Amino acid sequence: MKGQEWYQATDIAQEYDDKRFSQGGRLIDRREKEAVLDAIGPVEDKKILEIACGTGRFTAMLAERGADIVGLDISAEMLGEARTKADAAGVGETIEFMRGDAGRLPFEDDEFDAVIAMRFFHLADTPAEYLAEIKRVSNGDVMFDTFKNTSTRSIYNWALPMGSRLYSRSEVHSLIKGAGLELVGDSHDFVLPYGFYRSLPNSLANVFRRVDTTIGKSPIGDSIASVSYWHASV
């Protein structure tokens, strides 16, 4: 995986949410959670695995909605933040957090009703292998996101601390088919890059978000969107 040392640094884990999901970044957080729930909700009593759970944004949210959820991440520091967040939300006792490698999942075949992997595949050096492993442990839904190679992100991608793998639509379709999954649906969003929103106060970000959404609904919206949300099933 790309950028493992950077990702696992203590200060990165402590500052991760504040840098990405405060101010205008709250719009990103809201949209990502909406995408997850659209794909796998309702989640009550479902057994769900979150791969690369990071600071537990989705893990805690799904636990609050009654999911039986496992959060797996390679970073002990990120898992520490996730446990703190879950405890603050009152769901710490209902979530199992595990440190592990997404390429060798320590679970049985078909163990989960759904598997999600957000902010993961842009770091994957062997995405086909990871998706095959995800498919192995799911008996239902698979949901993940990717960054698009035709977006503005391609201009500055080289400057990001971890870099990013950028995908074409056809490449993701091929990965899904190769893993033995069926594509259920996809959506594409954020013409303006994430970094732009994070630099804005929330009130100003809302103005740009309305413009962004309008462009996104136009005939060229999907082709220039920076992020894609994919929903597949076994």
TrEMBL record:
Keyword Methyltransferase included in the entry's annotation: yes
Domain of life: Archaea
CDD domains cross-referenced by the UniProt entry: AdoMet_MTases
UniProt keyword annotations, A-Z: Methyltransferase, Transferase
Protein's recorded name: SAM-dependent methyltransferase
Residue ranges annotated for the Methyltransferase domain, each copy included: 48-137
Transferase among keywords: yes
